[in-house]
Write a structure and sequence with these properties.
four-stranded antiparallel β-sheet; mainly beta; 2 helices; 17 strands; 2 domains; about 220 residues; about 10% helix; Trefoil (Acidic Fibroblast Growth Factor, subunit A)
Length: about 220
């Protein structure tokens, strides 16, 4: 299966990944957004927008059943890097609280106020690489099976990365590869390259989709 060199514009479900591998999700008791570990696709709190994302928009947030969620209006700003920020009506930026997994608003956009947009296919690709029951991933160089990605601990400097064995991959640069993984059917196999963090090099993996993902439709 070939990986295209560029994205075509399409209308996509989009979730948001923070720098430490947690996803934004809807927290009904607070009627806002929280953060949860990457565990599966039954996750409320996505937007539906053209992809690549527009420079600025005020999207509706949705649940899995197609019902809009009670999330206050947030301006979604897309930066040249591909990361996004979310601002409330007063101009404050959505930020993460790594101590309790809530979110809060702050006056400036720094590292914790930026999020990586993840399409449906990319989300499935991440699940394949983090759940050994869903996907089987081997390093082409050694044949070693990598059972799951390891995301940075809170406070680490290597944001938007993950350890693949002893190799640290760059998630921002790996989005097309993750999308290709997410499009695999059950028993499909693909070999592709993942860019390494702070390097011009890549690591090559061979991945097999083992079974469907709950909530992938």
């Amino acid at each position: 299966m070939a990986v295209k060199n560029s994205f075509l514009c399409s209308f996509e479900k989009v979730w948001f990944l923070d720098g430490y591998g947690h996803m934004l999700c809807y927290e009904p008791y607070r009627r806002g957004l929280a953060r949860v570990p990457l565990l599966g696709m039954l996750l409320k709190g996505f937007v539906a927008l053209p992809y690549p994302l527009p420079v600025s928009s005020v999207p509706t947030w949705w649940g899995n059943s197609g019902v809009p969620l009670e999330v206050p209006a947030l301006v979604l700003n897309t930066e040249d890097s591909g990361l996004v920020t979310l601002q409330d009506e007063a101009g404050a930026y959505l930020s993460i609280d790594v101590r309790n997994n809530h979110t809060l608003f702050v006056g400036a956009a720094n590292e914790w106020e930026r999020f990586l947009p993840i399409t449906h296919d990319m989300f499935q690709g991440l699940i394949l690489m983090t759940d050994p029951d869903i996907g089987e991933v081997h390093l082409s160089s050694t044949g070693q099976r990598i059972k799951q990605l390891e995301f940075p601990q809170a406070g680490a400097a290597e944001l938007y990365t993950a350890l693949l064995g002893t190799l640290r991959i760059d998630l921002m640069k790996s989005r097309q590869a993750l999308a290709a993984l997410g499009r695999l059917g059950v028993h499909d196999v693909i070999t592709l390259s993942l860019p390494l963090h702070n390097s011009e090099s890549c690591c090559e993996i061979t991945a097999t989709r083992l079974k469907p993902i709950v909530g992938e439709g």
